[in-house]
Design a protein that fits this description.
single chain; 7 helices; 184 residues
Length: 184
């Protein structure tokens, strides 16, 4: 498939419009992202200080690998799968980090000392803090690639998007109720 310069401009405009129309996270969703991300970081930070250099390098190498993998996922979703269902896409996006976490538990076959589990928690913790800072309502594992690419994907956050949706509905309900009270 040959891409013409005008196609690039159309794609850039579409991504920009999508990012502008995507809703920012409300205060409760942002706070939950901050608390969860901080909790994960506070849990794994002492482990990095107690373990040897090989463990730390392996864990950080896995984090870098996850970042690179999710940059590719972000590119594919943004460029080739813009119409993918946000929930299905989030499920598919969570599979790699889940596999790294499960296979990376202490005593498992791939990372016998727990490097994978610590790396997965580090990656998700940092991603959630980035989501908090950017007020992103999307998929937590796509936060770092979105930051680097300066855009967001439309994928949902499997655990926090339902809370965001509830908060949005309640905010709209209370704001419309208060507007009705003021106009009466």
């Amino acid at each position: 498939m040959k891409v013409y310069p005008n196609d690039q401009n159309i794609l850039k405009r579409a991504i920009k419009e999508e990012n502008e129309t995507m809703e920012k996270t409300k205060p409760v969703g942002r706070t939950l992202r901050l608390l969860t991300g901080s909790g994960l970081i506070f849990y794994v930070a002492p482990i990095y200080f107690r373990t040897d250099l090989n463990f730390n390098l392996a864990s950080l190498g896995i984090v870098v690998g996850l970042i690179l993998l999710y940059i590719v996922v972000h590119y594919v979703v943004s460029r080739y799968l813009p119409n993918i269902n946000q929930w299905f896409g989030a499920l598919v996006a969570l599979i790699p980090v889940s596999i790294v976490f499960i296979l990376g538990m202490p005593g498992n076959s791939i990372f016998g000392r727990g490097e994978g589990a610590i790396a997965a928690m580090t990656f998700v913790g940092v991603s959630l803090i980035i989501d908090f800072i950017r007020a992103d309502s999307g998929c937590e594992v796509m936060a770092i690639p979105g930051l680097l690419a300066k855009n967001r994907t439309h994928l949902a956050c499997a655990t926090l998007t339902p809370i965001d949706m509830l908060e949005t509905k309640l905010t709209e309900k209370f704001s419309s109720k208060s507007q009705n009270d003021v106009s009466s």
